Amino acid sequence: MSVVHVDQVTKRFGRLTALQEIDLSIEEGEFISLIGPSGCGKSTLLRVMGDLTDTTEGKVIVNGKPARQARIDRDYGIVFQDATLYDWRTVSKNISLPLELARWDRKRRAARVQEMLELVELDGFQDNYPWQLSGGMQQRVSIARALSFDPALLLMDEPFGALDEMTRERLNMELLRIWEHSGSTVVFVTHSIAEAVFLSTRVVVMSPRPGRISSVVQIDLPQPRTAATREEPRFFELVTEVREALHLGADEPGRERTEATA
Amino acid sequence: MSAIAVERPGERRAQTVLRATGRVALFFVVLAALWALWEGYRALWIHEGWTRPFVVDSSTMPHVHDIFRALWRHSSSGTGGRLITQLLKAAAFTAKEAAVGFALGASVGFVLGVLLSQSRILQRGLLPYVVASQTVPILAVAPIVVVYLGTLHVAAWFSVAVIAAYLTFFPVAINTLRGMHSADRRALELMRSYAASRWEVIWKLRVPSALPYIFAALKVSATASVVGAIIGELPSSIQDGLGGKIIVFNQYYSLDPTQLWATNLIAALLGIAFFLVILLAEKIVVRRAPENLV
Ligand SMILES: Nc1ncnc2c1ncn2[C@@H]1O[C@H](COP(=O)(O)OP(=O)(O)O)[C@@H](O)[C@H]1O
Ligand SMILES: [Mg+2]
After folding, report:
1. How close A60 gets to chain B, by Cα (Å)?
2. Which residues lie across from A106 on neighbouring strands?
3. Which atom of ligand 1 is nearest to the CA of A206?
4. Is B15 a domain residue?
5. Which of A242, B159, B185, B272 might form a disulfide with B149, Cβ 3.0–4.6 angstroms?
6. H-type helices in A120-164, by residue range?
7. Ligand 1: nearest atom to the Cα of A14
8. Residues 159-188 of A with CB under 8 A from B
9. Are residues B19 and B112 in the same domain?
10. Same domain, B235 and B273
11. Is the pLDDT score of B77 beyond 70?
12. Residues B150 and B31 in one domain
């Protein structure tokens, strides 16, 4: 059974077609990246999966039920580009927010928060307020919060987009470690081709106006990925493949191709 | 791993002390400047014999030290005791009315703001009346409240508290409403992703987001409640508060203006005290990144 099944989904905002007849099945344990130029509907597709917005046509099945029911059953955790932490809550209080809403008792919450702090290597910062942390640390809190209640699915919308390259690469490694550890399925939106290739088991390439899936690239790099993965010839081949797929789907193939081969 | 440093506590404490000392120093500098301005203006106008905007003499602008001296004199108005003792007693009485009125008004304002934020229909239907309520002058409302509550055998001081509440609730209601809408869009989506109920969204997100707005209103309302209590005492002919003192010393003004000025001084200090209490509460309650404070 697939964790996410998107079936002929179209989403329109007035006259703008943000998604057109999208079909996508995501299997358990996959790490899927959505990549494409800005405005091609990546966020919209992610939000449709999380029932944060409804579809105009078509349906989305998550964990074998309609996306709405999956949301109500708290089947997924979500991470946005900005960490979206609550200013008035300490780090540990932020992580335990979904647990409070799920009516976990205090003791169980405390134990889980401690576990999550260790997982994202923030032990010792539990009593700090979000604004006292760096951007990278804030995003780790946000990931810990999304994973705290063990969701089957993790939705991430450019979670590292606002971070510097060094922090981003370190968090990529951490995310992979967490993914292996938790066994959850990840849908990851990114702008970065290298990031998509490095992290994913499959890269879904989208093109704009209207938002469509233009191709899917299977990433056959061995698991687990390490720093050395980024230096393998196969890594570069796949990066090239994704780049070409992106440019094929783009508006002006002539100009884009020259760039791609340069 | 920690690219950023969380400030060291010792350093922070030293900074806090330094800042506090600076503030106290500034306070006294401003106080001295105001004093100098008052006396300077007075001296200049008397010396030059200027009559605009008003004639300056010992009855329109008494010496500041005369006002303070008046506080230690035995009062000319019957009841005996030093003026300061009388005024402090009166201030305590007015403070009770204002505090109860403030608590009442702030609660009503908060609940009203939350309610209005939850229903567009309610907002459309009620908001015009809430606004209209504030266009009616308090001096017209006060006697009605006093007479009406009097027939219900409510203690007179409580009628005054209700009048103070009338001045208090409005800014709190309006700012609560605004604050409830100030919650971050992503933060709201996050709540939706957790399938949070309406109540949970209110208590765990919207109200905390609104707190800086609510405290901005509470600071206004705190001083307004003192003004409301003083004004409320006038039509209810309560003698025990600052309003009563103002009436009495008003009659003695041409004889001894310093007593009324001294009363004003105490009233102002009471208002400032109310303000400071709210400021302190805000410091304790509102946890926000420095740049996100309103
Ligand atoms: N709530 C909305 N109302 C109107 N248009 C929207 C809304 N959300 C997204 N869009 C439009 O839909 C298109 C896809 O947006 P989005 O999914 O955010 O793209 P991406 O995340 O790939 O950059 C864009 O043209 C965007 O302007
Ligand atoms: Mg986006």
Report:
1. 15
2. none
3. 22
4. yes
5. B159
6. 135-147
7. 4
8. 167
9. no
10. yes
11. no
12. no
| Domain that residue B240 falls in | 68-292
| β-bridge pairing A31-35 and A185-190 | parallel
- Spatial separation of the C-alpha atoms in residues B263 and B252, rounded to whole Å: 13
Residues of B in contact with A133 (CB under 8 A): 4, 6
A16 in helix, strand or coil? strand
Q: Please report where in the chains the tokens 């002539």 appear, as a residue.
A: A254
Contact, B230 vs B139, CB < 8 A?
Answer: no
CA distance B169 to B86: 30
Give per-residue pLDDT as tens, B5-17: 455 556 777 888 8
Q: Are residues B86 and B174 in the same domain?
A: yes
Per the structure, the count of domains in chain B is 2
Residues B24 and B81 in one domain: no
The Cα–Cα gap between B66 and B76 comes to 15
Contact B193 A77 (CB under 8 A): yes
Are A146 and B194 in contact by the 8 Å Cβ rule? The answer is: no
Question: Three-state SS for B136?
Answer: coil
User: Domains in chain A and their CATH numbers?
Assistant: 1-75+185-262 (3.40.50.300)
- Domain CATH for B123: 1.10.3720.10
Residues B23, B86 within the same domain: no
Output the residue whose Cα is nearest ligand 1's atom 9: A44
Please report the number of interchain residue pairs, chain A to chain B, with beta-carbon separation below 8 angstroms.
Answer: 71
Q: Which of A176-180, A255-259, B179-183 has the highest mean pLDDT?
A: B179-183
CA distance A68 to A92: 28
Closest CA to B258 of B40, B61, B81: B61
Instruction: Please tell me whether residues B146 and B234 are part of one structural domain.
Output: yes
A38 lines ligand 1 (CB under 6 A): yes
pLDDT at B252 over 70: yes
- Tell me how far CA of residue B55 lies from CA of A191, B41, B44, B256, B260, in angstroms: 74, 12, 12, 17, 18
CA nearest neighbour of A59 among A72, A43, A74, A70: A70
A142-153 mean pLDDT: 91
Q: Give the environment of ion ligand 2: residues with CB less than 5 A.
A: A 43
Tell me, yes or no, whether B143 and B82 share the same domain: yes
Residue B62 lies in a domain: no
**What number of CA atoms fall less than 13 Å from residue B203's CA on the CB side?**
8
Tell me the per-residue pLDDT of A97-142, one tens digit each, with 9 for 90 and over.
Answer: 999 999 999 999 999 999 999 888 899 999 999 999 998 899 999 9
Given a cut of 50, whether residue A161 has pLDDT beyond it is yes
Domain assignment present for residue B253? The answer is yes
Q: What is the mean pLDDT of residues A152-158?
A: 94
Instruction: Tell me the H-state helices in A26-164.
Output: 42-49, 67-72, 91-101, 106-119, 135-147
- A32: which 2 tokens? 């899927």
Sign of CA dihedral A19, A24, A28, A29: negative
Instruction: For residue B57, tell me if it sits in a domain.
Output: no
